[in-house]
Amino acid sequence: MQRNSSKDRILITGGAGFIGGHLARALAAHGAEVTVLDDLRVPPMIPPEGTGKFLEKPVLELEERDLSDVRLVYHLASHKSVPRSFKQPLDYLDNVDSGRHLLALCTGVGVPKVVVGSTCEVYGEADVVPTPETSPLSPRSPYAASKVGLEMVARAHQRASGVPEVGVVRFFNVYGPGERPDALVPRLCANLLTRNELPVEGDGEQRRDFTYITDVVDKLIALADRTLAPVVNFGSGQSFSVNDVVRILQKNSPDAKVTPKQSRPNEIMEFRANTALQTWQIGPGPDSVDIEKGIRLTLAWWESRDLDDIRQRIFQEEGAD
Ligand SMILES: NC(=O)c1ccc[n+]([C@@H]2O[C@H](COP(=O)([O-])OP(=O)(O)OC[C@H]3O[C@@H](n4cnc5c(N)ncnc54)[C@H](O)[C@@H]3O)[C@@H](O)[C@H]2O)c1
Questions:
Q1: Which of 22, 42, 98, 158 has its CA 20 to 30 A from that of 177?
Q2: Domain 175-208+238-266+289-320 class?
Q3: 173 CB under 6 A from ligand 1?
Q4: Whose CA is closest to atom 12 on ligand 1?
């Protein structure tokens, strides 16, 4: 990773969360100067330790002086639950407002580069699968709409002065150790270990494009030395159904009971990334962790945790949903 003597710090908003935490630890291991900003509005699964400076505050309270020596920002702080966004849509305006505040400060201070975390949810039910970045934005939840708003703020900055260089990354389904059980793979792992159950919403044939966390972190780190595309998909280009994931977990626990659950509102049947631009930007390197291995690693991480803690986490998530 290239260095610049006066501005050598990397700021990660949402750095106590799943993707931000893994990224912060990987960058710190590469010897980077890292600042993590997170207001811990969601309790971290892995304590945010050993990554350097920690700013415990919301993005909206970020100040110019926090950015004086920063050369790169990964903006990953976000409300991100689709079901919760239907119940508390106004909370999700913060995703737009925080992006606005951050990018205005970065422009004022002259931060050279900002990577903004978005989501495949902005495509809604796309007409074209695998879906290229040029597909229309058609959000189907308040969460997805907030990310479209965030992307529009980023786009305005891209069209203005050119400083900072701003690139939007649309993550597809990122999974692995440290993700909270409001997401598909950890919800299945946590329920398997505590109840011997695998809860499946609807018919389980909804398909997602899964990438293991370490592969996503490698791609994010690679962006540090690349010219940013205005928008790029971060996915594997393959999709697997929920039932496929269940079958992988059942190899480990054949007697686990599949428990049917109601479909969520506005469920999208398939997300799959067109990865041509990602490959052009970052290189063709194949993802190193395939889905079977990734799920095994994720389950092993959950197995290493305290069962009472897992029960409490599931209880919190179910209460919130
Ligand atoms: N995990 C995925 O599969 C996935 C898929 C698509 C998009 N994304 C996007 O990637 C980013 C990271 O997701 P994640 O899975 O790590 O989420 P996460 O919920 O694990 O982490 C988000 C972190 O941001 C913090 N946070 C939220 N709003 C904040 C604010 N205004 N100020 C300060 N801290 C705040 C939370 O406390 C949390 O620690 C998000 O932008 C999310 O929308 C993730």
A1: 98
A2: alpha beta
A3: yes
A4: 76
Domain boundaries, the chain: 9-174+211-234, 175-208+238-266+289-320
The pTM of this model reads 0.96
pLDDT of residue 284: 73
**Fold match, 9-174+211-234 / 175-208+238-266+289-320:** no
CB distance 41 to ligand 1 below 6 Å: yes
**Residue 3 reports pLDDT greater than 70:** no
Mean pLDDT for all residues in the chain: 94
Fold of 9-174+211-234: Rossmann fold (3.40.50)
CA 121 to ligand 1 center in whole angstroms: 14
Section 67-76 average pLDDT: 97
Cα-based distances in Å from 34 to 12, 42, 51, 168: 7, 21, 6, 21
Q: Report pLDDT for 6.
A: 63
Which residue among 11, 12, 13, 19 is best mutated to probe the pocket of ligand 1, counting the most ligand atoms within 8 A of its Cβ? 19
